[in-house]
Amino acid sequence: xxxxxxxxxxxxxxxxxxxxxxxxxxxxxxxxxxxxxxxxxxxxxxxxxxxxxxxxxxxxxxxxxxxxxxxxxxxxxxxxxxxxxxxxxxxxxxxxxxxxxxxxxxxxxxxxxxxxxxxxxxxxxxxxxxxxxxxxxxxxxxxxxxxxxxxxxxxxxxxxxxxxxxxxxxxxxxxxxxxxxxxxxxxxxxxxxxxxxxxxxxxxxxxxxxxxxxxxxxxxxxxxxxxxxxxxxxxxxxxxxxxxxxxxxxxxxxxxxxxxxxxxxxxxxxxxxxxxxxxxxxxxxxxxxxxxxxxxxxxxxxxxxxxxxxxxxxxxxxxxxxxxxxxxxxxxxxxxxxxxxxxxxxxxxxxxxxxxxxxxxxxxxxxxxxxxxxxxxxxxxxxxxxxxxxxxxxxxxxxxxxxxxxxxxxxxxxxxxxxxxxxxxxxxxxxxxxxxxxxxxxxxxxxxxxxxxxxxxxxxxxxxxx
Length: 466
Prior knowledge:
Elements: H1 3-25, H2 29-52, H3 59-79, H4 85-114, H5 121-149, H6 162-182, H7 188-205, H8 213-235, H9 238-261, H10 266-271, H11 274-279, H12 297-306, E1 309-314, H13 316-321, H14 324-336, E2 340-345, H15 355-362, E3 370-372, H16 373-376, E4 385-389, H17 398-401, E5 420-425, E6 445-449, H18 452-465
Parallel strand pairs: 1-2, 1-4, 2-3, 4-5, 5-6
Helix pairs in contact: 1-2, 1-9, 4-5, 4-8, 5-6, 5-7, 5-8, 6-7, 8-9, 12-18, 14-18
């Protein structure tokens, strides 16, 4: 081994260790930022070590790529608000999948088509896996982006024979990829595999409704990691294999956590139709069956002023209203009045895993204030006021009491057990599950209608005047 090869090997080893440590630290809120920093350093080391190998590309091409990519990244880092972070994560997943397709495809074309080299079985399998998973990740991620962005309906999109079509396409993909490995000099099978995989990515995601978006995002993130791992085998790059495996494994674990939080199996999510099932259910409640009690800003401020403990439950409505900063201001004001304030975080609140944590961290809410569902559910019964901001299905008591409800069995935050519940919502619109929320008509529930940012700002102003 030459000195250069030894340097690259050691650099890859250090990079891999930093990736492992970084992802481990991301498992806890308090150390997540530092873990992200270590992972960034690991990526920098891996890139530098790779660029030292002059067989990759000319440094002119590399420099152009670095400048172009940095410019795009800087622009969107400044432009995209935190509320659009789920869409950005979907784009990142898609770009990662597309990169795997391009790298594996170019390696295949260069060796099998141009140089007429008979690719061995292991390399062929790695190339096929990278193309299939990468292509599914690419189109699937951009369908998820379109659903999150509102470009296409966030509801489940299904048609007759959809699952049968998916099965046929999957079988065709397996057959063609097998032929591609057995007859690598004919590019026809590689092209067909790529095209079918791109179509599969669309068909696998369109039936998944908005309620399952956190699961979709984490699953696609796992796909991008697995595709990257397969690409690492294609390039014989150890750090890419390790980092891809880490991302793939962590994504699968997170997906399982999301499914458990909704009391649903991964297969049930992938088959889709959640929105349709909910929409066709008549016993989930209706607006005529629920009588709500409305509360104004002044009365809300008076209730807060007499409370001793408050739990705030954030949801996607808080993200839409961009109310996280004024919610932090409300927390500071209540704590100055010696009122205990905590935040209850449901695993699937928002549009991606950790969505609420990201938004509240942006507004500098202390990490120790963010309490996960299983650790805070027992505290609701002893809490004076629970403020629900834009959350819906994750606080719906029907998940516990109504066996006919499509969300029955889903673990929820026990906000209905608090002494008083104040729900900040724009309207009585149903959540992603498409059913009425029984909480709205509870004896201890009060509706604070209006834009969350505007109403909470007014409540803060009233509290300051007291």
